[in-house]
Specification:
By secondary structure, the protein is an alpha+beta fold. About 65% of the residues lie in helices and about 10% in strands.
Length: about 650
């Protein structure tokens, strides 16, 4: 038994030392290469993080595991060594070029461990006798990892390292044609199943074995989502999104596994992980606080003064013990289970709806129910008598009421009343935040609709106008090439016509770009931008009568952009829907406001509220962005009037 313990410790320390050496090698390679920070470097940072974090996790499991923790320990080991090796090889390949083996290891050394984390590790938590489903899932996950590694190591150089005979290369290519469309999606499917399995055990498992599985569920789902984003088009997921998600998931998933280890006391690691978490958190906090504080003080104080380092060192030394005590209490809470939350913390963390806030208050104060109504709304009548109602105020403004019902046969005591009074300002802020988030969601939806409509309009212009013209020019050039030897004069004539056509289309593109946002708006030049708009619509058959001073003082760029956007949308509506060939644009600039009015004598709008369309939504959003008011209604005689009034700061 003693020899087995020493062997486990030796292996654990060997893994930790190897990952440490490879991590230092990766940092040294980066210092030599000093490559630009690209998406590839972001993935190398993921590999480096795998080596650092999972090296510690592997050391903990291998040094203190029991027989049941063998496979999780080796998965953590493969993740640590593979990630650190991939990062090291990638950086030195950039620094010195060199053997193709560096490129190969950079491409697939991380695959066995990281893929096993996605499709195998969730099935192993918590420690228990595996059922038939778990055995099948683990076998399928390991089989997928082995197949993926085999495909990579037998690939043509520089990725592959195993040479194949011509017959085997041909067989591999045929097999890969069948598997290539399936392999990436199989990883996501297996990851989703693994996350669903641990989620089911969290919700349906034995109460004594559920603690911490929620964290594992979230970590597994986040890791799977990171790989899912690699399959999405760039328009949906930017190239850096997968790497950023992997960074987030790899920073979170080991902590999730550690929480299960702590709460379930798996593999004999409770004390070790507890101490490691405290050390890790304190180290990270001290380093981050020191760097940030020194950087800020260096900007505020002369460089020759050594005060920043001295002040920060003293402050950190003074705050170290209180902060460590706080961190220790939090970690102890993870080890021994979640402690009862303070009432205010429970409310603040309750969620994003008034029902969640009410449920948190009711649970904390042991009430039958708590209902939060916004503004002046009153609760429906209930059995048990009227509730205790507390107004929710934000300054002098009433945002709602908190209605509390005691349990049957009970009365609200003085302590509960005081607690409700103390909670009222916090709940009022939460209610206001909920309303703001709701309004923000609606605004985002409207902005998305407006953006999509603008994109569709631009697509129509490009597809129906510029696209066919360019295709015609291409056909004309092909015809010119055919005529060059047979009829040079006709070819020259055709080239002249194509040149004129191309010049005209280039002018259309410039007009289109100016129509989206004229460059003069960057300097607050609203009047020149409207002159460009007038010339553009004159060619389209709409005459714009401009009533404005010959010159306007420069406006703030947001004001000029909003005024131009509203005017352009209103003129566009006149051109499309009014059925007239003339409209009037009036500008009234005063010291305290800017008023822009667009009037036509066309079909007009019906009296009463105007039904909002996408264009009207766009105008209202632009007006709200600069604190302006927008009115749309019938003109004095006939037609429509759009009026934008923007308040300006007095100089």
């Amino acid at each position: 038994m003693r020899d087995d313990f020493r062997t486990r410790r030796a292996v654990a320390w060997a893994v930790l030392a190897a990952t440490g050496v490879l991590t230092l090698g990766a940092v040294a390679g980066w210092a030599v290469a000093t490559p630009p920070f690209t998406a590839t470097q972001l993935y190398s940072l993921v590999d480096l993080l795998d080596g650092v974090v999972y090296g510690a996790v592997a050391w903990l499991i291998l040094s203190r595991r029991r027989s049941g923790g063998r496979l999780p320990g080796w998965i953590a080991t493969a993740t640590a060594l593979g990630g650190a090796l991939a990062a090291c090889c990638g950086q030195w390949q950039l620094a010195v070029g060199g053997p193709a083996l560096l490129t190969a290891l950079h491409h697939w050394a991380w695959v066995p461990g990281l893929y096993s984390l996605v499709v195998v590790m969730p099935w192993l938590l918590p420690e228990r006798p595996p059922g038939r489903l778990e055995r099948i899932a683990v076998a399928a996950g390991l089989g997928y990892v082995a197949l993926t590694v085999a495909v990579l190591v037998t690939a043509p150089p520089p990725v592959g390292v195993v040479p194949l005979t011509p017959e085997l290369r041909e067989a591999r290519a045929a097999l890969l044609r069948q598997l290539s469309p399936v392999l990436p999606y199989a990883l996501v499917v297996l990851g989703v199943l693994a996350a669903a399995g641990v989620a089911w055990r969290w919700r349906r498992g034995e109460p004594t074995r559920r603690n911490g599985l929620g964290w594992v569920t979230a970590g597994s789902a986040l890791l799977t989502l990171a790989f899912l984003t690699t399959l999405l088009p760039p328009a949906v997921a930017p190239p850096t999104a997968p790497a950023l998600l992997m960074l987030a998931s790899q920073a979170f998933f080991p902590a999730a596994v550690a929480v299960v280890v702590l709460r379930q006391q798996l593999w004999g690691m409770r004390l070790a992980v507890r101490r490691t978490l405290v050390w890790y958190l304190m180290t990270a906090m001290v380093i981050a606080a020191y760097c940030v504080a020194v950087a800020l003080l260096d900007r505020l104080l002369p460089r020759a003064v050594p005060l920043p380092q001295l002040l920060v060192t003293g402050a950190i030394a003074a705050a170290f013990q209180p902060v460590r005590a706080l961190v220790q209490r939090r970690v102890d809470g993870l080890v021994h289970g979640e402690a009862p939350e303070l009432l205010l913390h429970r409310v603040v963390r309750s969620g994003g709806s008034t029902s969640d806030i009410g449920a948190a208050v009711a649970t904390a104060l042991r009430l039958a129910d708590v209902l939060i109504t916004e503004d002046e709304a009153q609760p429906p009548p209930r059995e048990g008598g009227p509730p205790v109602t507390v107004p929710l105020l934000r300054g002098d403004r009433l945002v709602g009421h908190l209605h509390a019902w005691p349990r049957p046969g009970e009365l609200l005591d003085e302590r509960a009343g005081e607690a409700l009074a103390v909670l009222a300002p916090v709940v009022a802020a939460m209610v206001e935040l909920v309303g703001t988030n709701r309004d923000l969601a609606r605004s985002r939806q409207r902005l998305a609709e407006v953006r999509d409509e603008e994109r569709r309009s631009l697509r129509r212009d490009l597809h129906d106008g510029l696209g066919p013209a360019l295709s015609g020019i291409g056909l004309g050039l092909a015809a010119t090439r055919n005529l060059l030897r047979r009829d040079p004069d006709r070819a020259e004539e055709l080239l002249d016509r194509l040149t004129e056509e191309l010049t005209a289309r280039a002018a259309e593109v410039r007009e289109m770009a100016h129509g989206l946002l004229p460059p003069v708006l960057a300097d607050g030049g609203l009047r020149p931008a409207l002159d460009v708009l007038r010339a553009q619509y004159a060619r389209a058959g709409l005459r714009i009568v401009m009533r404005a001073p010959a010159s306007l003082d420069p406006l703030p760029e947001p004001v000029a952009t909003a005024a131009y956007g509203v005017t352009a949308e209103a003129v566009r509506n006149v051109h499309r829907h009014a059925g007239v060939d003339t409209c009037t644009v009036s500008l009234d600039r005063r010291p305290d406001l800017l008023r822009v009015t667009v009037t036509d004598e066309g079909r007009g709008v019906a009296a009463g509220p105007v039904r909002p369309g996408v264009g009207l939504h766009a105008m209202r959003e632009r007006a709200q962005a600069v604190g302006a008011t927008l009115t749309v209604g019938p003109a004095a005689s006939r037609g429509t009037t759009v009026c934008l009034t923007v308040p300006l700061e007095r100089r």
